[in-house]
Structures are given as structure tokens and as C-alpha cells.
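Chain A, query sequence.
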Amino acid sequence: MKTIKFSGKVKRVAIMFAMAIFLFPVASCAQKVNFLISTVTPAAKGTVRVKSDSNKNYRIKIHIGNLAEPSRLNPSKTAYVVWMVSGENAPKNIGQIKTSTAFLSTKLKADFESVSVEKPNKIFITAENDPGVQYMYSEVILTTKNF
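Chain A, predicted structure.
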């Protein structure tokens, strides 16, 4: 068996490369969580992706398919509101999610994106009459488990 010898320069480059991989990760992994099946809108299916960025903020992306218009709920509502729970804090309104149809399709979809300085533990959606509410007044339409 033949032994391969590396020069000192090659060894230094290999060690620096290994240190860079372990000490300075390029990006953090995104966490993907599915919404639980809803009793209010059982056809709705969706996911939440949470990823930390280089500024130590958390980017929250939501995608939902088959989410009925809030006006079709019983009782009728005007908006879907996205709520975030972080730590031991009360739920916080982080925005309104709007439904739309894809081009040449009748299938409803909804997308939402936001940034938070706090890491979310749970995301849920309610249907409200006012998208700017600070306290939820309606039942939960979709929710994730704790993550």
C-alpha cells in the first residue's frame, strides 16, 4: 500500500476549511410545521416555515391551500388574522392573510410572510371582523402544534 504525503500548505488549507464549516455555519435550517386539520375549514391544508436570518430575526412564511373566503364562514367574517405565540407571551397579531385564486384556477390559496425578533412557539389563524384587533374574538381556524 502506498502512503500519500501532503505538504504543510495543503494540511493548513484543509484544517482552515474544516474550522470554517464547524465554527461559521453558512445559514440556519428552516423549521417546517404543518397546520393541524381544522374542524371549521377541514379542506384547508397548510405549512409554516420559520427560519432565522443573519440579523437574528425569524422569517415566518405561511402557505395554505383550500382556505375558504372568510365571508363564507358561519358566522361570516371579514378577515383572517395570523397570531404568534412566543415564550410565555400572550398571542400577538402579526398580520392579515388574504385568500386568492391562482391564474386559470378556482382553487383558493393563501400566502403570508412576516419577520419577528422573537422565535415563535406556535402560529394560529382566526377569522375576525377587524384585521387590526389586538385580542382574538373568534375561534381558531387553523393552528400548529408547539414547535
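DSSP finds one helix and eight strands in the chain. The helical segments are 8-23.
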